[in-house]
Design goal:
The complex is a heterodimer of chains A (409) and B (379).
Chain A (H helix, E strand, L loop, with lengths): L1 H14 L14 H25 L6 H25 L25 H34 L3 H11 L6 H34 L11 H27 L8 H32 L2 H12 L3 H13 L7 H4 L2 H28 L14 H24 L5 H7 L12
Chain B lengths: L3 E10 L2 H13 L5 E4 L7 H4 L7 H27 L12 H28 L13 H6 L4 E6 L7 H10 L4 E8 L12 H24 L51 H7 L8 H19 L22 H5 L2 H10 L13 H18 L8
Antiparallel strand pairs in B: 1-3, 1-4, 2-3
Helix pairs in contact in B: 3-4, 8-11, 9-12, 11-12
Classes of the chains: A mainly alpha (409), B alpha+beta (379).
Amino acid sequence: MLLVGIISLAVTFIFGVGAWGVNQPVGWGFDIVNFVFWVGIGHAGTLISAILFLLRQRWRTGIARFAEAMTIFAVMCAGLFPLIHTGRPWLDGYLMPYPNQHSLWVNFTSPLLWDVFAVSTYFTVSLIFWYVGLIPDFATLRDRATSKIKKIIYSIFSLGWRHSNRHWQHYEMAYLILAGFATPLVLSVHTIVSFDFAVSVIPGWHTTIFPPYFVAGAVFSGFAMVQNMLILIRKIFNLKHIITLDHLEKMNKVMLTTGLMVGYAYAMEFFIAWYSGNATEQFVFLNRALGPYAWAYWIMVSCNVLIPQFFWFKKLRRSIVVMFIIGVLVNVGMWFERFVIVVTSLSRDYLPSSWGHYIPSIFDIGIFIGSFGLFFTLLLLFIKTVPVVSLSEVKAVIDGAQPTHGGRH
Amino acid sequence: MNNKTLYSVSGLFNTPNEIIHASEETVNAGYKKFDVHSPYPLHGMNQAMNLKPSKLGFITLIFGLSGAAFALAFMWWVNVIEYPLVIGGKPLFQLPAFIPVTFEVTVLSAAIFTVVGMLFVMFKFPNNSHPLHDTDYMKKVSADKYGLTIQSIDLQFDENKVTSFLKSLGASEVFSIHYDGEELRTDNKIFNPKFILFLIVTAAVVSGATYFTLNKLLFMSPFNWMVEQDRVNPQSKNEFFADGFGMREPVEGAISRGFTPYKFKGQPENAARYLINSLPMTEINLKIGKEKFEIFCSPCHGNFGKGDSRLKGQFPNPPTLHSEKVRTWSDGAIFHVITDGQNVMPSHAQQISIEERWAVVNYIRVLQSAVNAKESDLK
């Protein structure tokens, strides 16, 4: 899969973005759809690790590490797309405001630049958060390493962690601070991504509902992805006692909730289109549901709104097979949501004379497949080398792990 | 063991309650230089060890605020001072549009400096040569035991007393941890040749990469197929045409843009009689005339029009422009020669525009009067 992506990318770099299906009027195609999709996938990780940490949800410990890793890899996949969609990725250095010979500076008022900052900050902070969580585990691995080379590598990564309580004290504070930062960050990132659309004047994009709608959608698809991956992991590594059915059920509940939010947003978009009395806006939404891309729209509605309703039933919520299928479908639906938003609004905007139709080229699809390849490759490397489950956190929440005296806990 | 120094006496405990109790007793017994090691943070341990709350939050606050201030000031400087660019008729300093970047920079700098401050400044990491490393004690506390270490530098320290003290608290195992004085070198590692070599290599790699990025990568031309396409370049050979020239003559009767037909073609007498030089003898016109003369005329006529060709006989030398004949010519006659050519001299109508031809004529007049000055020129 990675190879397919690399080949498609090579074709893109040699022949330019003309190899893609994008053209006037649909200048944003698979590249931006995939970008938003992957950033969204990443959000569940931070949500689980940061927000649930702040809310003292102790069940998060079993799945947080994996979800954080997924965040980082998903953001890496996401970061790929804005970089390559410029068509000349070797010039992307100009996105950073640095003092260059042209004495040219970036436009700080552009949502696209906000995106550069948001995504890079999100990636960096997620990475730091993840690494800080890993340090004590690396130290444990160092002390249990069987070969010399492993010991050296883990020694380097553990930085000489000694499990000292004088360190734990600051460590816990740092972890709390990072979680506190990651929480608004995760909400801001997809908000800023949605600004890319909402700040423009394209009908169907220019709405204030976008930030919360995008964040809910991101959490929705992210949880679906984490749930899918975890089902595979617990099956392969036999971690059923650590990643329990309860974990998965809780994630399914989150998916049900966010699925309803997304469904509400779909309905609200139609309502506002009608309520605003704006003919163009009304047309755009009718066009979404009944126009040339109606198939995509109805895939989105059925996968995102109708199918998760099965999670109302406890039996289905706790059935591995059912939840896996629903998780996959949710991600399909969420991908189509971004497709619908990006493509339908662009293909038919104000002027009927400038309407067009977007068909992705084989290279678009190749790069999309390649991004999955990158994601799975990184994920497998992670599983092979790093503790998938946070050792120190899980140790801290098993029964009898904390002192019982004094009624302090 | 003789050349090794005692670092500490450390005891292992089996349950969280025991270790909490043990550390409370250690504090009560007056030991100051001690530490507790546990595989995960224990609730209530900070109180048991009598530790003050972490001050890490202040680092975060300071660096977060300075990150925010820096971001705002930087954007203000860029958008208002250095590169003012009006976008959509909005003011140069647009606070609402600066909020997202300010927020991101705040979070980024606060997060980075919190972690860097904690790991590298407060903990003095990386530090893989601590005496506790590679001991059975460390291996057990990193798995599932809880350890208490009393260091030998504590004022009340006495090996036997501490050992029995820890045993009395219920320690399942007690270790005396020694370290090799040689191992813990305190000299400055910055002057280690290996480290200096490492620094030099790093510096070379970083500067090379930066140079490449800033000077090569960012200046790579995007897609230059327009330049490198299959086409006949000027002056190149082309087998397609019978004469083998890549450059073609225009079709007969074609008129280039801005071309004014010359009505005295082949009629030097008429040209001399009817053409009038309307270009004044100004400094600018003479400069233009000099420039064109030196480009087009001087190779054969010489820099001063004396007929001293610079072509060294590869081409027949023309007569001097300072002859009686040329001096008495009207401006129109000289103009006609430039335009239409004469003898071996080809037409220059393609290369020199009409205005410039008159400027050349003026310049030739100046050259002539410089060589053969008349009475009237001396005024």
